[in-house]
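Running low. Any example?
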Amino acid sequence: MDKNSTEHLQQHFYALKLTKKEQLTKSTFALEFEVPDLLKSNFQFQSGQYVTVKIPTENEMLFQDYSITSAPYESTLSLGIKVKSAKSAAQILVQNFEVGDTLQISEPTGRFTLKSKPNEHRTILGFAAGIGITPILSHLKNILHQEPRTRFFLFFSLKNPLEIIYKETLEQLQKMYGNRFQIFYFFSQEGAENPLFEGRLSEKKLQLIINQILIYEEDDAETTIWDSTDEVLICGPGEMIKTVANACNKFGIPRKNIHFELFDTFDGDIFTSEKKIPLLENIETTIQLSGKNYDFVFKNNQEKILTQLLALGLEVPYSCKSGVCGNCICTLKEGKVELLENEYLTPKEEKEGKILACQSIILSKKINLNFDDV
């Protein structure tokens, strides 16, 4: 995801040497960086996190986020990237940098993470589309390595078999953890012997997966694998995440156990809100942003705070508009809001008055927000 420039001012970057560059498919690459001993503590990470890479060009400095594909127990920092166009940041990166070159890399960040539970029996499902496999791959490796009682089912959606990213790695994991790891490919542009594996992941497809794959436990004829599911991890484009997340919730998985990461900007809500918001008009608003104060009056509260601020031309940092990335975090100094969705803030942060502007609706006639005090 591209971030607003104000977000990068808060990050710490370090020069890391590129030690491996491997083409995985026609448009995807794996990059591996050496982390010197002096920086080991700076680059400790959790599965599901990402780093930002500075990519210099003739005219500007580009900032691009890439998910970490290595697991925390591994000694390297590996990233997976996809080239979407000839002028994209990823194309410039793979075209202009070779093994031995150095790049400025930020410290790992992100909250698409799970608490490790090595002593529990868990069932975890992963749903990935295309390059969305990258953060889930880190989770997959780490969970299978650290949790000997956990099993993992991966449902991977791609255009065709030639597009399978990290195919060799996934096959090696299957051989190592065959009794605890199963992977199922779904191809949107190629047929299959079983129609179940044709087409994109959807609500109908999930229902078929539940009824045909996640069926009864071997030692319990009354419990299905779906009933035993503890956590769901989803990564892909926004519409895919929205479809799969809502379907999982509809079929019984609590929202708090459904975790997702967007790999591109998504201008919408993942879960549909059923809350009724009372109409308020002429809302006195004070904003602190990038060292400046702004005072104005919102016409009403029928739009989320971020949407209204962007309409006024304010350069508020954001990426997803879905409560996932956390870039629009701010502190509520005065007033009251309704936080519709939150995949980012911790309970402690919420108690401290932190909110996500992209998911907040105003519930008071006066409001004061500080985007600098975070």
